[in-house]
Amino acid sequence: xxxxxxxxxxxxxxxxxxxxxxxxxxxxxxxxxxxxxxxxxxxxxxxxxxxxxxxxxxxxxxxxxxxxxxxxxxxxxxxxxxxxxxxxxxxxxxxxxxxxxxxxxxxxxxxxxxxxxxxxxxxxxxxxxxxxxxxxxxxxxxxxxxxxxxxxxxxxxxxxxxxxxxxxxxxxxxxxxxxxxxxxxxxxxxxxxxxxxxxxxxxxxxxxxxxxxxxxxxxxxxxxxxxxxxxxxxxxxxxxxxxxxxxxxxxxxxxxxxxxxxxxxxxxxxxxxxxxxxxxxxxxxx
Length: 286
Prior knowledge:
The protein is mainly alpha-helical. The protein has helices at 35-55, 60-76, 82-90, 93-121, 123-146, 163-167, 176-179, 191-206, 210-229, 235-256, 281-284, and strands spanning 2-5, 9-12, 17-19. It contains eleven helices and three strands; from the N terminus they run βββααααααααααα. α1 (35-55) packs parallel to α5 (123-146), α4 (93-121) packs across α5 (123-146) and α8 (191-206) runs antiparallel to α9. It is globular.
């Protein structure tokens, strides 16, 4: 099928040419990911992200101005129902506390679990998917730097209710003690939505069991409800998170020339059923 190959284009049998990515072909060949290398890459990336996120000047006055601008834009777009959702959640303590704990924990649990599952069960697509989530994180960091934004809970003039402060929930970034260790104006784009979308898409595309795929669809939807209900993000922050994920998928395609969930052409078909053995000519005869 393949006739010749260059670093950018591949000539195929019908004479057309297919984009093969900007990385050299030797970097796109199948190699089983090594666990200690992946841990080192992810740990370094997360350390770099945490360092950068907290080292970015908070610029409170600028962030508050940006938050007000997003609030006014949402009102112009007819998205001011966000306040009603927040007040509904704040009126039900059990729901508010459940959402607060969801916000504080699952964001840091589900993504690593999905990555480990990919590493073990879908190693042929692991590297492409990992490139997407790392790129998503770095793009979000760039967004925090270029457009510091106050979350709704820090804009009391619009009557948003900080559910963590109201119910004294443990563990959220809205907790004053924890807030001292984190940039409170890193709201645009929403990385909660970015990571949740990546997890949801990965599970939907790569899982075989229907119930796992359904959970993949439900996870980013539930995350959207949580970030809005707890007043930790504007709806437009979530839109920003979705855009960042789309850009990350585009960057991965630009690098490799294929989708994030398409393995290298020389990769084994991990987990796929083996083809039936060919039927001999004698067995085919009547």
